[in-house]
Design a protein that fits this description.
about 110 residues, Glutaredoxin, 4 strands, about 45% helix
């Protein structure tokens, strides 16, 4: 039997947080954990890539309501995986897409859009 912690947010509350974070920030990274303590390697990689190119960005820790955040984010991006990065309201991708853009020298431009 797998332990399933109770979510701290309803699906509607998670959806509201996602919507406002995307609308209110030029760059927002939805991640597992926070800026000081990422809780997965993919989130840490995405955070490091964003930090290379931006000083001002927002992070949202999805762990307090992971299932609800996945559903809300999928409505915006079509993806249910975490992390997810949005720039000016547009879904850019997860850590793999950010790394690919960085390798091509396009990430800085994308994050400053």
């Amino acid at each position: 039997m797998t332990f399933q912690p109770e979510s701290e947010l309803t699906e509607e509350e998670a959806r509201e947080r996602v919507n406002s974070a995307i609308e209110d920030n030029d760059v927002v990274l939805f991640m597992k954990g926070n800026e000081l303590m990422p809780q997965c390697g993919y989130s840490q990689k995405a955070l490091e890539l964003v930090q290379q190119h931006r000083d001002d960005y927002e992070t949202v820790d999805v762990l307090d309501a992971l299932a609800e955040f996945r559903t809300a984010l999928e409505d915006h991006s079509g993806w249910e995986t975490i992390p997810q990065t949005f720039v000016d309201g547009e879904f850019v991708g997860g850590s793999d897409v950010l790394a690919e853009l960085d390798e091509r020298g396009e990430l800085g431009e994308k994050l400053s859009a």
